[in-house]
Amino acid sequence: MLILGIILLVIGFLTGISILWTIGIVILVIGAVLWILGAVGHEVGGRRHYW
Prior knowledge:
There is one protein chain. With 51 residues, the chain is mostly helical. It is 71% helix and 0% strand. The chain is rod-shaped and about 45 Å long. The two termini are 22 Å apart.
């Protein structure tokens, strides 16, 4: 999700399409939150990681 958010941000910035910029920011924030939750050991989407 982080990569998709960054791609949408870049495309929205280069083309001037504000909806892509907005969606990119939202996806980037959601991806960052999920990544942080997964990194601290919380289950994300019902998935458990046994490392």
